[in-house]
Amino acid sequence: MRVNEVFRSRIVIFIIQTLILTLLILFTNYIINISFDMGVTGEHQAIIQFLANYILFDNLSGLLFIYVIWILVSLIPIFIFNNFQKAYSMNLLTFFFPNFFLYVFLSRYSPEYFNSNFQFHFLHTILLGIVIVGISILLSLLLKKIKKLKIELQIEDLHAIASRSKSLCPYCGTKFESIPKFCYVCNADLTILIDDKSEKEE
Predict the structure, then answer these.
(1) What angle do CA 96, 101, 103 make, to 5 degrees?
(2) Which of 101-119 are b and which e, b meaning 16 or more Cβ less than 10 Å from the residue's Cβ?
(3) DSSP secondary-structure letter at 182?
(4) Nearest to 57 by CA among 131, 134, 133, 125
(5) How many C-beta neighbours within 10 Å does residue 187 have?
(6) φ, ψ of residue 110 in degrees (nearest 5)
(7) Please, are residues 79 and 86 in contact by the beta-carbon 8 Å criterion?
């Protein structure tokens, strides 16, 4: 298996995205305050807290932080894949996992908090998912257009170079795809014409 294929695989990209998210959360010391139900064990609280830090927020700065980190990691598949469908599906896959397990753990081990806050958090989760999909599609299409324009410019440059390398014998009218020193039909010396052309260009 090629290194490029491994790098492009979804598992590797998922791990990279999750790792970057985790590092951003740890370095910024982002923690959301959750009012756990009575009787929730410390182990379950730690798991829920860990998952909640990826998704939930309780103030404006938390909202901005969550959106920024998810938009940043969403750029990874956009630049790796040259396809908006692969980009947004990869981003949704990464986004789905912490959301799924967070809501499962909350509903099971802290049902009171889950029931009282589900609607608020779920609506924002849906909104963030839409934003991630929108950015994935728009940026992927924009990058594709930029690459297409770049290729078109390169082709134009190649055509210009090719046209400059073509020549015509002034004596017999033979066309050449290059600039020869002598005409192979009438044996005329073409170096004089080349020197004259270069002098005019200067």
Answers:
(1) 95
(2) ebbebbeebbeebbeebee
(3) B
(4) 125
(5) 9
(6) -140, 65
(7) no
C-beta of residue 32 within 8 angstroms of C-beta of residue 38: no
Summarize the confidence of residues 58-72 as an average pLDDT: 92
Q: What is the pLDDT of residue 167?
A: 75
Q: What does the pLDDT read at residue 199?
A: 43
The DSSP annotation for 10-40 comes to HHHHHHHHHHHHHHHHHHHT------PPTT-
> Are the beta carbons of 178 and 168 closer than 8 angstroms?
no
Closest CA to 157 of 169, 167, 149: 149
Given a cut of 60, is residue 114 above it in pLDDT?
yes
Q: How far is CA 99 from CA 2, 28, 153, 197, 199, in A?
A: 32, 21, 44, 70, 71
Cα angle: 154, vertex 159, 160; to 5 degrees: 95
Residues β-bridged to residue 176: 167
